Amino acid sequence: MREELIPSDREILRPTEVVRSVTDIDFNKYAEQGIVNWGFDIEGTVARPQSIDPIIPKEFITHIDEARQAGSLHNLFLITNRRDEPEHKLKGRPGYAEQAKQILGADLVISRLDDIPGKPNPDMLFAAMSGLGLKPENTAYVGDKLTGDIRFANEAVLGVSIWVNPRYSVNSEDRPLDMLVRRTLEAVHARRLGLEAKGAGPLGWVACTLVKAFVRPDSK
């Protein structure tokens, strides 16, 4: 049973690979290993955080299109814990998750609107794979949070989990204290796993500097 393959408590947060950006993912390399189905977290991974509508860099859209054309990406799905903003309904336009799906041409999107427990509960992943008829061993998931996305993927025993090292800076008006706490906790987990968190902007720099000074990597 695949439940027997779930990593230990410490290793459950360890990604298969760490990248600076989704554009650094080598889809061809993973396709050679049989990994051809890809799931992505939306906010903070493929879209800039703290925006009402998903802002997805053009270079990522191009990277996805090229992978499809090369035959190294067969199925694409998106997952987010985020709920739609009231503004979407008021203006009669698609919600956050649906907009991201349309921009990337994804095959499926799963959000909290689907009445499924959110990350890190793996039920959203199971729903996506079931909806597209995918096998865990041929599926990869990419996200920017070790405690949410990577734990999520590893508990579902996917073939690959990729951590996009958080690099987006946050505007000063975007809940700076909350973001500092969250990024510091993320950096603590990374440090204990022997990974190096890359802080972006003043808050990211403060978080990573504090962690590097006071937290040591766990011994294996």
* Helical segment count: 8
Structural class, from helix and strand content? Answer: alpha/beta
Major β-sheet, in short? 6 strands, parallel
Number of domains: 2
Mean pLDDT: 80
Write the layout of secondary structure elements.
Elements: E1 17-19, H1 27-31, E2 37-41, H2 58-70, E3 75-79, H3 86-90, H4 96-104, E4 108-110, H5 123-132, E5 139-143, H6 146-155, E6 160-164, H7 176-192, H8 201-214
Parallel strand pairs: 1-6, 2-3, 2-5, 3-4, 5-6
Written account of the structure:
With 220 residues, the chain is of the alpha/beta class. It has 2 domains: 163 residues, 3-Layer(aba) Sandwich (Rossmann fold); 52 residues. It contains 8 helices and 6 strands; from the N terminus they run E-H-E-H-E-H-H-E-H-E-H-E-H-H. It has a 6-stranded parallel beta sheet, sandwiched between helices. Helix 2 links the parallel strand 2 and strand 3. Helix 7 packs parallel to helix 8. The radius of gyration is 17 Å and the shape is globular.
Quick take:
The chain is α/β, with parallel strands linked by helices. Helix content is 38%, strand content 12%.
Name its key features.
globular; single chain; 8 helices; Rossmann fold; 6-stranded parallel beta sheet; alpha/beta; 220 residues; disordered N terminus
